[in-house]
Amino acid sequence: MNTHSVPVTTMDAQLRERAERVIPNGMWGHQRASSLPQGYPQYFASGKDACVTDVDGNSYIDFMCAWGPIILGHRNPLVDAAALSQIELGDSLNGPTAHAVELAELLVATIPHADWALFQKNGTDATTSCVTIARGTTKRRKVLVAKGAYHGAAPWCTPSLVGVTAEDRVHLIHYVYNDVESLTAAAREAGDDLAAILVSAFKHDLAIPQESPTKEFAQAARALCDAAGAALILDDVRGGFRIDLGGSWRGTGIEPDMAAYSKAIANGYALAAVTGSDRFREAARQAYMTGSFWYGGASMAAAVATIKELRRIDGPALMKMRANAFAAALTRRPPDTGSTCFKPARRSCRWCSSPATAMPRLARVFARRR
Q: How many Å apart are CA 15 and CA 6, to the nearest integer?
């Protein structure tokens, strides 16, 4: 069994060993157990505010935000109370609850391009639904996607080729993000079979510097879609409700036809959404897209509470201010401290208060209440 030299006395190591027997590779989803660095925890027990605690009682600052969903802090009392109020009445019922209508109304009121909303459970559901609706509206097949972009784990978009056939991706055409010439060439290749251009909120390919979309690129994407009668789809799963409550491309001055949301929409509760303009309403109405848990009311109640709170505090502006303060503090960190961001601090987030790091300054920054 591969326990990565972690002492077998730890609960994490014991769970890894047990998991190897009953879970392929001992892990599923975003990360593989074999790829975790030595000492990095695989199993967690709890989270509160900005910290998470592993099964051995070590606490960490959660810079990962649970892979993105946590935007108001773990166990946010407002969000949890909203979800619990529906859980006490029942979550999975024979149809949606009133929270679905309230959430759809809230999204339409918050997102400028949105005339309607549909709900799913994760980002792959949402991006796949967008592509389905675009093809249903245009009666075309070709979809332009950026090289290296991540849009989910379905066969048409997964980064893995295991179990994927060439036919699953035969109608995808790739372009280079932020490269107008490349995008234009891809649209030309699609010709009169162009159904959609799929764009990320920003370039966030694995292990390379991130890029915000340029206005020139956004304008070109919009113009190409308008000229061809195709859909401009914004994959806002990662950036949604963080960069701008109205959509992550608001800063470019360009509105998409449809957008996919998940991650931060419900502060950790499983939910995704598609928003779209009226042109795509009929295909959204006719397409068969469903799941056993897509009516769940608790996550929708959580989403309503999350979005209302983000609107109240102007969440994107607050996050930008704190991110800038954080970056400034890191640049002032004393050299050669030897600190590592994943070193466990037994029982508490002691890395925050250690004089050997920049975190005392950051603790003062983040202690300021709104």
A: 12
